[in-house]
Amino acid sequence: MCGIVGYLGNGNAYDVLIKGLHRLEYRGYDSAGIALVAPGGKLNVFKAKGKVENLETICNDKDTDASVGIAHTRWATHGEPSDCNAHPHYSEDGNLALVHNGTIENYKLLKDALEEHGCKFHSETDTEVLVQLIEYIKINNKCSLLEAVREALHQVVGAYAIAVVEKNDPDTIIAARQSSPLVIGIGDDETFLASDASPFVEYTKDAVYLNDGEIAVIRRNEPLKVLNLENRESKIDVKTLEMSISQLEKGGYPSFMLKEIFEQPTTLRECIRGRVVENGQRVIISGVRDHKEKFLNAKRIVIVACGTSWHAALIGKYLIQEMCHIAVEVEYASEFRYSNPVLGKDDIVIALSQSGETADTIAAVKIARSMGAFVFGISNAVGSSIPRETDSGAYIHVGPEIGVASTKAFTGQVMVLTMIAMAIADLRGTLTADEIAGLGKVILKMPELVEHVLKLNDKIERLSLIYTYARNFLYLGRGYNYPVALEGALKLKEISYIHAEGYPAAEMKHGPIALIDAEMPSVIVAPRDHLYEKIVSNVQQVKARGGSIIAIVTEGDSVIRNIADHVLEVPEVPECLSPIITSIPLQLLSYYIAINKGKDVDMPRNLAKSVTVE
Ligand code: F6R
User: Which of 2, 59, 306, 324 is the catalytic position?
Assistant: First the structure.
């Protein structure tokens, strides 16, 4: 959470940084700020509570002339969102400014010590402690900024991606990372840094991803230098970015979320490309193929994830258990790490994360590796921490997801899990060649089928008007579609702020059924599958208690149609592929309800896309 960006070059730093902050706003948007090292030894720091546009407004009549600067968009951890708590933070003498993504866990200890030495603090943040500490060391040790940063980082415990500038040095930015992402962009006579590559993709495709414990020294007219905390120089590994600008723009849609929902036929195509081949007869997942023995001998698979990714992971459990006959456990990464996990070399841990930067999931990866398990990462963000810290893995290849509510990443994750399950089943002989080819053929048609589901858009928009003012919703599903119900409820909660509960439909009678009345609509995911008859009874139970029902059913359904108040028909696919189809009407329903309520769907309150704090 929080996004940081920096620029040093010959261009206008303010323009680059503000544009960069807009791109990073998905990481947090409760306040923003910028520090510019102006000609003549001036450090201009501007901050504003709220979104980046507020910062732009206050900067309108300010001197923003500079060719070096750093900026930040915040998701509050220590201290409420306010102008004062916004970054950049500066040292007491105004000599240094610093932006930070992460948390300094021992900040209280450091703050007390600095206060004893007479330091005064102005904000409630952990970050201010770091910049004061750097300045304190710099003055007392009479050392350079680089040395002071290195010494300070030896003293802090926690996670950080930081960038620091100095008032009297318009030619240097020092940046560092530990457990929070940081990437440097190398252009012609200009250097960028950011939490992800989106702020500089139009200027350069050359990127260097910093590793934990590394410090980048960005100096005008000098090549980038990367050192570790022991001052040893690291080899610079320049990667070529695959991202394009059009992926970062709304492309005519009113929001990123709607664009991303409608992109799903394309993103699924990208996700499948090169993996389901020979007209569907073969599935190749190189991360599985290259570690055959591990997958052949695995006794158990544990999938760790958070939020929407956890819902995709649950679907993964159904997929792998059905196709591969391997026991699968699905854990919230945040709980897994504190549950005294028991893992060994015959276990495979799959870490599932769109961003690849979720702190809890990264921590689970580290624990799993330390216990000898084979760790397989599934992520969307190329170059992010999870793919770099796992033994093997697969990207979902759905392109940058900017809307805070995950949509195309969810369907991409489910698709990748499906193909992984098929690849493992092929290795272990638990699916026949015919079964694989049968599924493979449908997978190749999924983009088209999703396109067809998206035609429900107008109907769902009209339907949403009836339910916009409901205060509570129940989402029900069974089997493969139970996690879809959880995901539908999460989508509604996070963007419309309506309370919604997802439940396995059969569990309803053990409690939640008490909630049902005319005021409480139920969304029931009930495609024609082997649990269909059972879910029909659940639909009846809701109806008998006066609840209104929106049902997602298979095209041609005649039973639920006669019970439910509204049906949304989706094409028939094999049961294991149905979540990719049934989740889409739920994405649209939550989208339109939130829009009807006037909510900002791309930046829902209190949320951030990349959760890099515990
Ligand atoms: C909800 C949503 C979140 C994320 C969760 C994990 O729409 O996006 O619940 O799924 O924060 O994020 P990743 O997948 O990046 O680890």
Answer: 2
